[in-house]
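Q: Predict the assembly, please.
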Amino acid sequence: MELVQTLPRCSRQSAVRTPTRELTRVDIALFNGFALPKVAAIIEIFQKANAFGASQQLHPRYDVSLLSAAGGRIASSSSVFVWTESVDSHQVTDDRHLLFIAGGAGVPHACRDERLSNWLRRRHPFSEIVHPIAEGRLLLEAAKLPSRYCALLYGDNETSDYYQVRALSEAPTEVATALRIVEEDMGLEVARHVAESVAPQQDMPWDMSVSRSGTPKVSEKIMASARWLEENVDQPVSIDAAAKVAAMSERNFLRRFKSEIGMTPSDYLLRARLNMSCRMLVESRLPVDKIARRCGIGSGGQLAKLFRKYLATTPTDYRMGREASPAEQA
DNA sequence: TCGACCCCGAGGTGAATGTC
DNA sequence: GACATTCACCTCGGGGTCGA
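A: Predicted assembly structure:
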């Protein structure tokens, strides 16, 4: 069941909100086993927008809160821990509220969490945007609530391509929603500035995401399996499991995936993992072995082997090269 | 169009070695 | 001692083919 609502505009004229000052509260609902990358992308977008505002002598525009049913320490699916506020201690204010709901392997368990469901029901009427990330929509469905996307994302405005907005029949990506909100609040130039500073694909060796590019000839089943592969880059993934997502036999899945996407599922997964490891090499100081394990690439040795094959370098050389020439990353 | 079977090679795993 | 890289061996993914 697809539960989707759209407001006329994600603008200040919303009937839901009567702000007393220019602050937007961005609540992100988490649970054990949530998928970290997309949550991190949202946080980064609003943080960059605040930082840009600060450089213009403006007050912080966005207040991002990480929330969970009980509060405290929450583990992502990649075993990275974050500290959260309890939903019960988090009060609704008369500021503008946006709600993002994480996806990830922990969703089925979170769907059975009455405390989280009840809070979603209480918070839903006060949130201008209610945007589930991937499997996060199952949490909304479990609470019998509709999604509430930013309607402007469905319009044919000139910046749709810039945010990689999907077809009209699909929900916008969480990144597109966050960027659109920044554009609404702070203007197109700021949104572009933020998009350019956070866009991982522009820095990475490959941009191969089918789910973002919306390749027209790709069937929904194959698209779903490709998305599933992208969302599970940090997990041990078998082709058989991916075939089950597409509701096909393993052999047929391999054949269809390659003919529609142009590469094998394992190649697709490998590229996604390499992109993630490249990003972590540049943005963190974690040792190569830990990065490899967190990206689903067994060991540092395996990562070195892949870097030698695909990039003709080693992970440490790649990291040093990116640090030595930051201008090339722009 | 899809499933089943078989074979080959690429990739994963863990140990060994090198470097700092 | 920690981390990075190489190497050897084994597993499994992908291609070819055929039949339903």
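Chain A has two domains: 4-198, 210-329. Residues 1-21, 152-170, 211-216, 326-330 of chain A have pLDDT under 50 and may be disordered.
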